[in-house]
């Protein structure tokens, strides 16, 4: 199922703390950075916060700029983004300013917590139970499919950020580093212990804003586990975008492919009929740009908008065989090859029989098919 784009936003001290242990909130951002955060909020469909941060900070989570709110309304959106609180227990203070400012409010909780939250909030917010425990994937699916949220901004706290990153559900991290130390071992920290999906993050921007530094990261290393990581969604979307660049053909599919190393670095990309070659396939074009002895290939992932071919007439080796020759052990694709040109094609079966982990993300089938609509019934 598709999820919203998940953007994590936080500010920390040089020693990684979100706050100190004093009674007042520690201000880590600069005035100019607060304005930047306001702009990011205005771009979001929804803003999410954990119940612990809600109790500790009592935030409003508003778009403060009248001009930005007016622009949202002019674009046919609500004046304020949907505000979301996540709580396992349902223990929420109905007097918090969060509930009495801005527009719509929504609470995600457990079956047990839903009773308590509904009793406390009444009609102030919609309460959605997710089952016996908090299920982040179910939450994101509900936001996307039921509430129409395409861009979600997450403002904390540390537990929420940690869980989303560990489950490979974050698409971007915007981290502000403040020039001070908290030094208190009891102070809340941004990230907790545990195993994180995604490996090394990619730095996409570093910018000084007054006396703080904004760093933007993408968790782009290929993920593992039963659910697709944000990296898999990111790179498969890129492969689908490449497919749209293919010169149109009535005798071959338009396909895009990206080869990504285990550390999240892109190694090569290609698309069908690239460079004027009328018969080159996407995976073939991408792998041809790499040294066959490249030690990164065995740990790499090939992202292809269409299942790699298992048979072809135009070249001696089909793409599934080229992938096996390269030593790649993981393939992520959006769409199984139809019988349009090669009846009984089964690149997935060929790869899986050789021990390759093949992941199908059918939510990207639409973008993968789009450049091929003229070939499909």
Instruction: Give the N-to-C terminal Cα separation.
Output: 24 Å
Question: What composes the largest sheet?
Answer: 9 strands, mixed
Quick one: how many beta strands? 14
SSE order: EHEHHEEHEHEHEEEHEEHEHEHEH
**What is the multimeric organization of the chains shown?**
single chain
Strand fraction: 15-25%
User: Overall pLDDT, averaged?
Assistant: 90
List low-confidence stretches.
223-228
Major beta sheet, strand line-up: 5-4-3-2-6-1-7-9-8
Written overview of the protein:
- There is one protein chain.
- The protein has 377 residues and is an alpha/beta fold.
- It has eleven helices and 14 strands.
- The strands form two sheets. The protein has a nine-stranded mixed beta sheet.
- Strand 4, helix 4 and strand 5 form a beta-alpha-beta unit.
- Helix 9 runs parallel beside helix 10.
- The two termini are 24 Å apart.
- The relative contact order is 0.11.
- About 2% of the residues have low confidence.
């Amino acid at each position: 199922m598709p999820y919203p784009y998940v953007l994590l936003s936080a500010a920390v001290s040089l020693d990684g703390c979100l706050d100190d242990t004093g009674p007042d909130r520690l201000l880590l951002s600069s005035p100019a950075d607060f304005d930047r955060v306001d702009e990011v909020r205005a771009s979001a469909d929804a803003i999410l916060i954990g119940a612990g941060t809600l109790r500790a900070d009592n935030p409003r989570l508003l778009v403060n700029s009248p001009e930005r709110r007016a622009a949202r309304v002019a674009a046919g959106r609500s004046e304020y983004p949907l505000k979301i609180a996540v709580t396992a227990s349902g223990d929420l203070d109905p007097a918090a300013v969060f509930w009495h400012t801005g527009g719509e409010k929504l609470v995600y909780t457990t079956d047990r917590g839903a009773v308590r939250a509904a009793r406390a909030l009444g009609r102030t917010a919609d309460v959605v139970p997710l089952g016996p425990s908090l299920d982040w994937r179910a939450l994101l699916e509900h936001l996307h499919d039921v509430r129409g949220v395409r861009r979600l901004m997450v403002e904390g706290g540390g537990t929420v950020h940690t869980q989303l990153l560990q489950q490979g559900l974050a698409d971007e991290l915007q981290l502000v580093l403040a020039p001070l130390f908290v030094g208190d071992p009891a102070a809340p920290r941004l990230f907790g212990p545990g195993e994180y999906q995604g490996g090394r993050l990619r730095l996409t921007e570093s910018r000084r804003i007054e006396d703080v530094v904004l760093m933007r990261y993408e968790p782009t290393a290929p993920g593992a586990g039963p659910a697709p990581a944000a990296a898999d969604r990111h790179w498969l979307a890129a492969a689908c975008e490449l497919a749209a660049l293919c010169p149109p053909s009535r005798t071959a599919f338009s396909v895009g492919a990206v080869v990504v190393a285990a550390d999240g670095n892109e190694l090569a990309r290609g698309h069908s009929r690239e460079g004027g070659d009328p018969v080159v396939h996407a995976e073939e074009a991408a792998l041809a740009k790499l040294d066959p002895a490249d030690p990164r290939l065995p740990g790499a992932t090939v992202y292809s908008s269409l299942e790699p071919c298992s048979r072809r007439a135009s070249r001696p080796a089909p793409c599934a065989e080229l992938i096996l020759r390269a030593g790649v052990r993981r393939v992520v694709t959006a769409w199984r090859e139809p019988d349009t040109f090669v009846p009984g094609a089964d690149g997935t079966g060929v790869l899986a029989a050789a021990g390759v982990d093949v992941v199908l993300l059918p939510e990207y089938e639409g973008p993968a098919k789009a450049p091929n609509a003229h070939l499909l019934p």
